[in-house]
Design a protein that fits this description.
The chain has 381 residues and is α/β, with parallel strands linked by helices. It has 14 helices and 17 strands. It is globular. The C terminus is likely disordered.
């Protein structure tokens, strides 16, 4: 009997890493504005920013202006129509802004408009929605350049994301996660139920959907005299690894639009950021398939949203005949948790809903995800 642990962005967040979409986009945008302030203008693949005569030399004032500016972006087509609240309560039109902003990419503005509500999967979903918009265009001569622009924009975002994540602080070691990784499997949690009381996993397979190495410190401690082994698979790539590059995009081959993209052979580039094709660049996907076919396994969900951007892979994992149960570790703060919403997301990956209800453990048998600020944790070196 084996164990498969799905590691998602919530796992990094639980360790205090600022890996949320909001943290990343704020870092990127603020750095753009700071460069524009310093050099009078800034331009990259996504945006052009030019300083105006209204200069804010105070960094705190500039930061507040950027925050207020971002909070007013409500719709992708609403360009440069923003008001700004000053410290005296007055409203100043954007013509008194310290910067003139021009969006060069169709991808950036909708991402900014979702800055306060998006989680990690929404960047990929927003990209896929724009991809489908290109698909629905009638003029093939317009389709190709728009598709190229969209893909180049996403490529630039990925490059900025890697820079951001590479410079994050070291992660703490949380004792409770060490206990989770090394815990035994309860026979009562399996479907169908086994006669054993508890089982030591023969193999613990950690499928890391993150690009960071937060889970590595727990893998290093696994392995025991019982012969249990541990494998860490960076299925979506690893920071600063040219062999295992970052995989970022969409992975739902079941969506109806996917078939239309396959049929639209005159336009090239629809599949440039479809995850399935990136999986073929390494042996990581094959390693996962071999593990799934090897023996019965229980799934732990640790910080993964189980959204549709990973639908193809998650459906294979959850509906596999050797998958014996799915245990959710949910986020809970001040009495509010996301257990129910996670069950909704997981259910999307099942064609057999009856089987889904048999495999997902009840909330009573599930557990809350430990958080870095629950108590003091040692910082790893």
């Amino acid at each position: 009997m084996n164990r498969l642990i799905l590691i998602g962005n919530g796992f990094d967040l639980a360790h205090g890493l600022k890996t949320s979409y909001k943290d990343f986009i704020l870092w990127y945008v603020k750095s753009c504005f700071e460069k524009a302030h310093k050099d009078k203008n800034y331009e990259d693949r996504l945006i052009t920013i030019t300083s105006t005569n209204y200069v804010y030399n105070n960094p705190e004032h500039r930061s507040r202006w950027v925050n207020d500016y971002l909070s007013t972006i409500e719709h992708p087509k609403r360009k440069n129509k923003v008001t700004w609240s000053g410290w005296n309560g007055d409203n100043r039109k954007l013509d008194m802004s310290p910067f003139k902003i021009d969006y060069k990419s169709n991808l950036l503005e909708p991402l900014l408009s979702r800055c306060n509500v998006s989680n990690w999967v929404d960047i990929e979903s927003e990209y896929y929605e724009l991809l489908k918009d290109v698909l629905e265009l009638n003029d093939e001569e317009v389709k190709q350049p728009q598709l190229i622009e969209l893909n180049e924009s996403l490529a630039f975002i990925i490059s900025q994301l890697e820079i951001y994540l590479t410079n994050l602080a070291p992660t703490p070691f949380i004792e409770e996660y060490d206990q989770i990784f090394s815990s035994k499997i309860r026979a009562a949690d399996l479907y169908p139920k086994r006669s054993d009381t508890t089982l030591i996993p023969t193999q613990t397979y950690v499928l890391n959907f993150n690009y960071t190495n937060t889970s590595q410190q727990y893998i290093d401690k696994l392995g025991s005299p019982s012969g249990s082994t541990a494998i860490l698979n960076y299925i979506h790539g690893k920071l600063k690894d040219t062999v295992n590059e970052l995989i970022f995009g969409f992975g739902d081959e079941i969506d109806q639009a996917y078939k239309k993209m396959e049929d639209d052979s005159k336009v090239k580039g629809y599949f440039d950021y479809i995850k399935s094709f990136w999986y073929l660049r390494t042996d990581n996907y094959r390693s996962l398939v071999n593990f799934l076919d090897l023996d019965d396994y229980q799934v732990y969900v640790l910080g993964h949203s189980c959204g549709l951007s990973d639908r193809t892979m998650l459906q294979m994992i959850f509906e596999h005949p050797k998958c014996r149960s799915i245990k959710i570790y949910y986020h809970e703060r001040n009495g509010v948790d996301n257990f129910v919403s996670l069950t909704h997301e997981i259910s999307r990956h099942f064609t057999d809903k009856g089987l889904m209800r048999k495999k997902i453990l009840s909330k009573r048998r599930s557990e809350r995800m430990p958080q870095h600020d629950d108590q003091h944790s040692d910082i790893s070196g």
